[in-house]
């Protein structure tokens, strides 16, 4: 009996048949080398910029004796650090794009090499000072407030500073006059880190970064297990997530807690899958068990407990279960168990802080291309227009983005809704893209990959080096930074929005074939042998 007949009759092996691997073409080899050079040099530059205590990429803070974290009492030239990190953003994004192109042309980068690279890079970044952002000092401040028995949603960093507390002395950040805007579980995490770190901000941040690193690698290993049967998709997933310098910089080097929210939602959304592979659409077996749906709701609720914006992925979960009322109710119940008590505990002060932030814009938002007044904030009228545009783009993507992951029905709506928000909303930072990167790795390769990486690269470039909330020194650095903030990056971000709309309208996604995705917890045989990193010329 032929394999086609076996598939049609439901007999034969249950092992999914994989798409044929194209032989490497003439560009696969140079693209693979370009990816290795771009990604490797980008990560190396980022590490060098993170090591010295006096680096424009590292927030100023007292350094404790001994270690961790590790640091060198050296000074990096300001202009050279800016230029090097700008180059790292371009090299990192370009390297990932070259790697994706190489894989699409037949190159097979060994998964073990990518995983080993990721583990080494993550371990080094975890033990280095925080770099690329001052947000970790905010986390340390709110954790310290909680340890002292105060409410971080009520007490402000300025008030902690007035007490003479050693952590409070660092409260010079943008949010110093307002309470925490992070979710209740973020406060619990920050409290734990502050307990372990004591009166050393550097030690508190170290614990925060260490937990981020562990969770980051957990997602990387889960992706590897789920895609282990297809070397091409396996390599692509690691390029998008595990060794992506732009992601490593925002999540592990800088220590942003977004990775905790994204990981919880990631593990929740992948639980929504058919009870039996290959089940007919509309049958009972094509939907998740009620227990799986409830667990998915709990995990997505945990993600929202870290950051309220992850309600977007809760909406995606609901969308995926719309035609299965019992599973939807189970997911809603699980979500409520995780969400309701936590936010009742946080109370009105958290919502007040979030309301205060409404209308604030990020420096590189593309709305300023239409009116320079939008460099300072969005008035209430345009705010409503942005909401309507976001909803319109989300609905367009829900309609037009192919549902190419039949085994994971929550992936397509999650990408559609989250990408619409990430591309349209007026306050965006590059590490917010954490929401979609791991999910995109489970979606077949398409032109959307390149749009997302370019958008992430523009945001990362504009925020380099990120170690201070203040503007760069006068001279060419400030001039160039302003050109990037107010012209260069906004143009690229607007072009990314236009590209997504054009893909929706034209349908030219160039999506790869759907395939069965394994479980990150189940053991299984490898179904394909990996090719070398650099394809043979024969």
Which class do the helix and strand fractions yield? mainly alpha
How much of the sequence is in beta strands?
under 5%
Write down the overall geometry.
globular
Ranges with pLDDT <50 over ≥5 residues?
1-18, 525-538
Question: Strands across the major sheet, in which order?
Answer: 1-2
Helix content: 55-70%
What is the element layout, followed by pairings?
Layout: H1 3-9, H2 28-50, E1 52-54, E2 72-75, H3 78-104, H4 111-127, H5 135-147, H6 157-162, H7 184-197, H8 201-226, H9 231-242, H10 245-253, H11 258-269, H12 290-306, H13 311-320, H14 325-346, H15 348-357, H16 380-400, H17 411-424, H18 434-442, H19 448-463, H20 476-506
Parallel strand pairs: 1-2
General description of the model:
With 538 residues, this protein is mainly α. The chain has one domain. Helices cover 59% and strands 1% of the residues. The protein is built from 20 helices and two strands. The protein has helices at 3-9, 28-50, 78-104, 111-127, 135-147, 157-162, 184-197, 201-226, 231-242, 245-253, 258-269, 290-306, 311-320, 325-346, 348-357, 380-400, 411-424, 434-442, 448-463, 476-506; strands at residues 52-54, 72-75. It has a two-stranded parallel sheet. Helix 3 (78-104) packs antiparallel against helix 19 (448-463), helix 4 packs antiparallel against helix 8 and helix 4 packs parallel to helix 9. The longest helix is centred in the C-terminal third of the chain and has 31 residues, at 476-506. The radius of gyration is 23 Å and the shape is globular. Residues 1-18 and 525-538 have low confidence and may be disordered.
């Amino acid at each position: 009996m032929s394999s086609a007949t076996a598939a049609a009759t439901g007999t034969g092996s249950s092992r999914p048949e994989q798409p044929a691997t194209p032989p490497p073409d003439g560009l696969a080899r140079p693209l693979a080398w370009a990816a290795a050079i771009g990604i490797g040099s980008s990560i190396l530059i980022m590490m060098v910029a993170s090591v010295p205590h006096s680096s424009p990429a590292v927030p100023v803070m007292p350094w404790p004796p001994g270690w961790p974290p590790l640091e060198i009492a050296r000074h990096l030239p300001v202009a050279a650090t800016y230029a090097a990190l700008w180059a790292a953003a371009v090299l990192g994004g370009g390297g990932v794009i070259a790697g994706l192109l190489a894989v699409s042309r037949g190159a097979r980068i060994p998964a073990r090499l990518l995983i080993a690279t990721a583990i080494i890079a993550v371990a080094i970044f975890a033990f280095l000072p925080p770099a690329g952002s001052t947000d970790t000092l905010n986390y340390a401040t709110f954790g310290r407030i909680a340890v002292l028995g105060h409410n971080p949603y009520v007490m402000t960093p300025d008030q902690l500073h007035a007490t003479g507390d050693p952590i409070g002395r660092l409260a010079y950040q943008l949010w110093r006059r307002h309470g925490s805007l992070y979710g209740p579980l973020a406060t619990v995490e920050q409290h734990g880190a502050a307990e372990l770190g004591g009166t050393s901000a550097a030690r508190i941040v170290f614990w925060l970064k260490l937990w981020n690193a562990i969770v980051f690698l957990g997602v990387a290993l889960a992706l590897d297990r789920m895609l282990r049967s297809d070397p091409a998709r396996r390599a692509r997933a690691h390029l998008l997530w595990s060794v992506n310098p732009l992601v490593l910089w925002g999540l592990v080097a800088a220590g942003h807690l977004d990775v905790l929210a994204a990981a919880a939602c990631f593990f929740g959304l992948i639980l929504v899958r058919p009870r039996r592979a290959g089940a007919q659409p509309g049958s009972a077996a094509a939907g998740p068990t009620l227990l799986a749906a409830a667990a998915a709701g709990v995990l997505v609720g945990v993600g929202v407990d870290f950051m309220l914006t992850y309600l977007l992925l809760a909406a995606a979960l609901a969308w995926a279960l719309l035609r299965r009322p019992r599973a939807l109710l189970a997911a809603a119940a699980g979500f409520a168990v995780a969400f309701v008590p936590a936010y009742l505990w946080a109370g009105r002060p958290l919502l007040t802080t979030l309301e205060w932030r409404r209308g604030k814009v990020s420096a590189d938002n593309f709305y300023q291309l239409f009116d320079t007044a939008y460099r300072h904030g969005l008035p209430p009228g345009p705010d409503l227009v942005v909401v309507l545009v976001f909803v319109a783009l989300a609905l367009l993507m829900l309609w037009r983005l192919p549902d190419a992951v039949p085994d994971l029905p929550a992936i397509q709506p999650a990408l559609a809704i989250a990408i619409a928000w990430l591309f349209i909303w007026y306050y965006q930072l590059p590490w917010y893209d954490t929401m979609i990167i791991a999910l995109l790795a489970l979606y077949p390769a398409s032109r959307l990959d390149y749009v997302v990486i370019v958008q992430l690269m523009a945001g990362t470039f504009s925020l380099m080096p990120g170690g201070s909330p203040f503007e760069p020194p006068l001279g060419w650095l400030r001039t160039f930074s302003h050109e990037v903030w107010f012209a260069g990056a906004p143009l690229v971000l607007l072009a990314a929005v236009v590209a997504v709309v054009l893909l929706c309208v034209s349908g030219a996604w160039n999506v790869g074939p759907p395939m069965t995705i394994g479980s990150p917890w189940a053991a299984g045989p490898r179904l394909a042998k990996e090719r070398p990193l650099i394809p043979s010329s024969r």
